[in-house]
Design a protein that fits this description.
The chain is of the alpha+beta class and 90 residues long. It has a single domain, classed as Kinase associated domain 1, KA1 (TATA-Binding Protein, 2-Layer Sandwich). 30% of the residues lie in helices and 37% in strands. It contains two helices and five strands. A five-stranded antiparallel β-sheet has the order 1-5-4-3-2, covered by helices on one side. The longest helix has 14 residues.
């Protein structure tokens, strides 16, 4: 089941955004992988979250298409938002 799309403002370039997201994910023992239209968050090599994304100016819109079992969409959105803003996921 897809979660509702959400949009987050970011600073810097898209490349800087994804570097920041990968660093934040790594600090939480996650691996963030991206291609041209999707991002995946992996734990121990297993994809726990997958999402489509688009960047428009200084905003990224994300739609979670695969969510970790037992995690509500809002919790996953919160974690991804923290990755985008460079904060720690709680």
């Amino acid at each position: 089941m897809d979660c509702a799309p959400f949009t987050v403002d970011f600073t810097g370039t898209p490349e800087e955004l994804f570097t920041r997201m990968q660093t934040a994910a790594s600090e939480q023992n996650f691996t963030l992988v991206k291609d041209e239209t999707t991002i995946s968050v992996k734990v121990f090599g297993m994809t726990m979250v997958q999402a489509s994304y688009s960047v428009n100016g200084q905003q990224i819109t994300i739609t979670i298409t695969k969510n970790a079992p037992g995690y509500p969409c809002e919790k996953t959105q919160h974690i991804i938002t923290k990755f985008i803003t460079g904060g720690k996921a709680a």
